[in-house]
Amino acid sequence: MINYNSLVKKWAEELELYEIQEAQNLVEWLLEHHLGLRRVDMMHFLDEKDLPQSLLDDFARLKTGEPIQQIIGKAPFYGREFLVTKDTLIPRNETEELVHLIIKENPENGLKILDIGTGTGCIPITLSLEMKNAEVFATDISESALEIADKNAQELHAPVQFVKSDILKEEIPIEGLDILVSNPPYIPIHEKSSMHTNVVDFEPGLALFVPNEDPLLFYRKIAEAGKKAIKPGGRLYFEIHENFGKAVKDLLLEMGYSKAEIIQDLNGKDRIVRASMN
Fold first, then answer.
1. How many CB atoms lie within 10 A of CB 15?
2. Measured between alpha carbons, how far is 144 from 193 in angstroms, rounded to an integer?
3. Which residues are annotated as a binding site for substrate?
4. Which residues are annotated as a binding site?
5. What's the predicted TM-score (pTM) here?
6. Fewer beta carbons within 10 angstroms: which end of the chain, N or C?
7. Residue range 86-276 in CATH 3.30.565.10
8. Residue 266 · residue 101 · CB < 8 Å
């Protein structure tokens, strides 16, 4: 028999892909999911022989580097839980910051909003639920991602309209927008070799990577389409690669947007570019 705290430490040491603190957090998350046990249960005694096979199986998956969000099938975002699969990016803290900025800067009632490349739908669903009577739309090229996004919208009772669309080939299907937002693919392929295997091996490359020779591909295409879709005085919000803040800002200014600004995340990295339509 060992107590909860001892088990966490023992299993965390087996997660060699992670720093020890992150490994402990992952083990605690897994134990809470399967057993309902949290850090406050440190003195709760456990017998490893009696642990459910489903927990042991999931721990084996965790040791391969598979993200825990995919193992348990859900991820937290802005105080809610979203279904995730291998066909969607896992919602991240930096994207919560993007959403929070949009909510804070746009208190008006009944705004028309579009999210491009929606994945799990975490951006448009959160905006729909947090903003006053917003009319919210979202697109993605992946039918599998749209199915998950639609399920999330239904489970969270968010009236978001989802549309299959390829921004590289098609016009934006919605016009008269107050807000256009996107967290598009922005990682140059050459960075793949330096990335953690739990991202490269398990999350969809379609939503992550851009050609080395054209890292601003999606920003340019979305901004071009946005010139027709965003109404005068409307705003464009991008989540960005930390190395391309100035490049994205300059691109938007060259294309006729105004008030382009780079905003840093809580870690002090360039993470968001915001601009206005004249």
1. 18
2. 26
3. 183-186
4. 117-121, 140, 183-186
5. 0.94
6. N
7. no
8. no
